[in-house]
Amino acid sequence: QAAAAATSGGSSRANVMEDILKATLSNMGVSQQPQRPDLSLVRMIQNLPRVRELFEDPEVQAELLPLLPESLQTVAELRRTVEGSPHLQQLSSTVESLLRQGHIQTLLMAAGVPYNECPSVGGVREFIETLERVHGGS
Question: How many CB atoms lie within 10 A of CB 118?
Answer without folding.
Answer: 19
